[in-house]
Design a protein that fits this description.
Elements (H helix, E strand, L loop, with lengths): L1 E3 L5 E5 L2 H4 L13 H7 L1 H5 L14 H14 L4 E5 L2 H4 L10 E4 L5 E5 L1 H11 L2 H16 L3 E7 L10 H6 L12 H18 L5 E6 L1 H9 L13 H23 L7 E5 L3 E4 L4 H24 L1 E2 L9 E2 L9 E4 L3 E6 L11 E3 L15 H14 L3 E5 L10 H17 L5 E7 L18 E3 L6 E3 L3 H10 L1 E3 L3 H4 L9
Parallel strand pairs: 2-3, 2-16, 3-6, 6-7, 7-8, 8-12, 9-13, 12-15, 15-16
Antiparallel strand pairs: 1-19, 4-5, 10-11, 13-14, 17-18
Helix pairs in contact: 6-9, 9-11, 10-11, 11-12, 13-14, 14-15
């Protein structure tokens, strides 16, 4: 049997700047981001919040982008998703550059006007060697016939905006609070205006911010996750999430000024929270976890609807919110949960998260049906097109990747062909192995493996399935023997 995808479907692979750029030349190394400072901090390493692996030992995409883009093209893809590094472009603060800040009646920042004078000042501050290098990257992708999906901010912030180690020690005393501080919203608006002006000629689709839900949850709720600044403060997390929603809004508006009718959107990472028993409290816990991890931020950035007391009801309708032309989904896992009086998430939710059943190397639970479920839910609620901007598996032995890819694409095809969800494209995470944030180089997501000493890339066997689908637009349903069987449902 076969599943067919639309003729104009976008097939791509995805990477990010911080995770891939460093590793070859000295010019590629860049220390001016919060993530660089975080991964190099002896205290953070000693506390086991990060692996101790260093990003400057990475895959070297900054220097090797031409051969990597050729590999992407050889897979049969017609697009590539990558990001630019805010801190590289503006290694020094832009806070002194004047901008016209617009606020709604509630006091939220909803506009950051730069104008020609402001653009001139930003141009004097920007590192134009970096700008031109990124322009060459984008132009090369276009020369290969790859559509460019460009992310303005994929986690890393300039270190002049965020000192994660100081925030980890004492947030109140830190002068560089990152997304906790409204000034980061304003500076993002300036950066987005500049980036929209200088890069849009070679961009087909913009993404403002990658996974704002993850930034807030991993950095400010699940303190041991390894994301900066490693705190467990749910109220602080929602200040961050509110600022991220507002930052998307000003970024959307400022990029759109220079991008015309082409789409500008945002990507989030919804999990499927799955209650394992019939206890109504488990079901309510799963529903609330889903709401707080995905729906809260989407209601805010799409409609300006803020739930300030977390009762799953709108308390405030903010003015001046522009929404999003599409929603990007980064889908990876199911999380099995049940109600617990003895276990809580950051002291705020009585819920126990259970071990995976069909596990990736990360310990994430493989659940292909989830990609169909979240695509349906998001389209039915927000009524904008969907892109799957990330979907992939940590699988160093390459034993499950082919089955993972097949089953998720089959579910995606059903969402398109049976349910009628307007899913416009799919990006596999990732083109190649790279620096997996707090986990360093231990998690292998690539369709191409990487030897971090020699920088040699080698195509994995599982990439053949993805390549065939990209080149034919069809998915053959293969037997379990060819792609690996799903284990019986029991935790290990």
């Amino acid at each position: 049997m076969k599943a067919k995808f639309p003729e104009d479907f976008v097939w791509g692979t995805a990477i990010s700047a911080f995770q891939t750029e460093m590793g070859v030349s000295k010019e590629a190394d860049f220390a001016g981001t919060d993530w660089y400072q975080w991964t190099h901090s002896p205290e953070i390493i000693e506390n086991h919040l990060v692996s101790g692996d260093l990003p400057e030992k990475g895959v070297g995409f900054w220097d090797l982008y031409e051969e990597d883009m050729k590999r992407a093209k050889e897979l049969g893809t017609n697009a590539i998703r990558l990001s630019i590094e805010w801190g590289r472009i503006f290694p020094e603060s832009t806070e002194a550059i004047e901008a016209k800040v617009g606020r709604n009646r509630g006091g939220d920042v909803v506009a950051v006007g730069v104008g020609e004078e402001g653009f001139g000042a930003l141009s004097k501050t920007a590192n134009w060697d970096v700008v031109e290098h990124y322009r060459k990257m984008l132009a090369y992708a276009k020369s290969l016939g790859l559509k460019v999906f460009l992310t303005a901010n994929h986690f890393a912030l300039p270190s002049w905006l965020h000192d994660p180690v100081a925030c980890h020690k004492d947030m109140e005393k830190s002068s560089r609070k990152g997304w906790v501080d409204e000034k980061t919203v304003i500076e993002f608006g300036k950066y987005a205006d500049f980036a929209g002006r200088v890069f849009s000629e070679s961009v087909d689709v913009w993404e403002t911010i990658n996974e704002p839900d993850v930034i807030a949850t991993q950095g400010y709720v699940l303190g041991s996750s390894g994301f900066p600044p490693g705190l467990e403060d749910p109220l602080l997390a929602f200040r961050v999430e509110r600022n991220l929603a507002l930052a998307h809004n000003v970024g959307y508006t400022n990029i759109k000024k220079h991008f015309g009718a082409k789409p500008v959107g945002i990507g989030i990472a919804p999990n499927v929270f799955f209650p394992v028993d019939d206890d109504p409290r488990s079901r309510k816990a799963a529903e609330f976890a889903t709401y707080m991890s995905a729906e809260w931020i989407l209601n805010a950035l799409m409609y300006g609807c803020f739930d300030n007391d977390f009762d799953m009801m709108t308390d405030e309708r903010a003015e001046g919110i522009s929404g999003s032309d599409y929603i990007g989904i980064d889908y990876y896992q199911r999380i099995r949960v049940r109600y617990s009086e003895n276990v809580s998430v950051a002291g705020a939710l009585n819920m126990e998260m259970l071990p995976c059943v069909d596990c990736t190397d990360f310990g994430w639970d493989i659940y292909p049906e989830g990609i169909r479920a979240v695509s349906n839910w998001m389209f039915n609620r927000y009524r904008v097109p969907i892109y799957i901007l990330e979907n992939g598996i940590a699988d160093a032995k390459d034993e499950k990747r082919a089955r993972f890819t097949r089953d998720h694409l089959r579910a995606l095809a059903d969402a398109i062909n049976v349910d009628g969800v307007p899913i416009r494209g799919y990006f596999h995470w990732s083109l190649m192995d790279n620096f997996e944030w707090a986990n360093g180089y231990s998690m292998r997501f690539g369709l191409y493996s990487v030897d971090y000493e020699t920088k040699r890339r080698e195509k994995r066997k599982s990439a053949e399935l993805f390549e065939k689908v990209c080149k034919t637009g069809e998915l053959d349903y293969e037997s379990d023997e060819e792609t690996g069987k799903v284990p019986a449902e029991k935790p290990h």
